[in-house]
Design brief:
Pfam families: adh_short. With 240 residues, the chain is an alpha/beta fold. 45% of the residues lie in helices and 13% in strands. The chain binds NADP nicotinamide-adenine-dinucleotide phosphate.
Length: 240
């Protein structure tokens, strides 16, 4: 799928990977980028990247009314990037179940709400959907059990979406980053990749029609390890 000339919509576009994606989309010649965030004011710097092509949209992906309004406002979208995400630390035996619900509301239900709302536009454009998953969609890491679970279900839903969109020709991409140097991973004691590099690799994966995108060196190692021996990757993560 070509980025040049596309009209994209990015959730969670005010910081981290989302903001880097907006910048990368502009660099690759997108016609228009809807940058969505919970707080409109947090998008000022993103709109300033190119006020002619960036449109700020207020969107909390847990708010069904805002999701419907965003889809109405952005009916010309052909590339939807479900980037907004939430991570709470904690193991599955002790973390508050409300925290699991909160992460599911963003990482799973949010992704579904937004994709369903944009389905007519994407179908009309024969466009694409990109879901930000994680290497922990494949196997969980200790200390982020609920987040891992939310990303594992989002992976399953991404596979289902791909099957359900087959007839309409809409492409569905799953992205499986390793640790990325953003606010989300600031307390993760691992080597991290810059969000700009991750955004660039995501767009290259879309342009190459790679359904599963592993956009950083850690992720590439996981992809190779997963193909060779999934249990070894699970054991590596469990000891991480
Ligand atoms: N960083 C990593 O190591 C890593 C690795 C694998 C996958 N990922 C995934 O990549 C995506 C981007 O992560 P990131 O690292 O850029 O995280 P980040 O820096 O923490 O940014 C998260 C973004 O999601 C937004 N968001 C959170 N809840 C939202 C909601 N209810 N509605 C709308 N937006 C919401 C945040 O908005 P506010 O500013 O309003 O809070 C922010 O823009 C996420 O899906 C994450 O799970 C990240």
């Amino acid at each position: 799928m070509n980025i040049q000339g596309t009209t994209a919509f990015v959730t969670g576009a005010n910081r981290g990977i989302g903001r880097a994606l907006v910048e990368a989309l502009l660099q690759r010649g997108a016609s228009k980028v809807y940058a969505a965030a919970r707080q409109l004011g947090s998008l000022d710097g993103v709109v300033a990247l190119d006020p002619q092509r960036v449109v700020a949209v207020e969107l909390d992906v847990t708010n069904a009314d805002q999701v419907a309004a965003a889809a109405q406002q952005a009916g010309d979208v052909d590339l939807l990037i479900n980037n907004a995400g939430k991570l709470d630390f904690g193991g599955v035996l002790e973390a508050d179940l409300d925290s699991l619900a909160g992460q599911l509301d963003v990482n799973l239900y949010g992704l579904l709400r937004v994709t369903r709302a944009f389905q007519p536009a994407l179908t009309q454009a024969t466009g694409g959907v990109v879901n930000l998953l994680s290497v922990v969609s494949l196997a969980p890491m200790p200390g982020i059990g609920h987040y891992s679970a939310s990303k594992a279900i989002a992976h399953s839903v991404t596979e289902s979406m791909r099957a359900d969109f087959t007839e309409s020709g809409v492409s569905v991409f799953g992205v499986f980053p390793g640790p990325v140097d953003t606010d989300m991973a600031k307390d993760v004691p691992m080597d991290k990749t810059a969000p700009e590099d991750v955004a660039r690799d995501i767009l290259s994966g879309i342009e190459a029609d790679q359904h599963d995108i592993f956009p950083d060196p850690f992720a590439e190692q996981v992809q190779a390890g997963w193909a060779a021996d999934p249990k070894a990757v699970a054991a590596q993560f469990a000891g991480a």
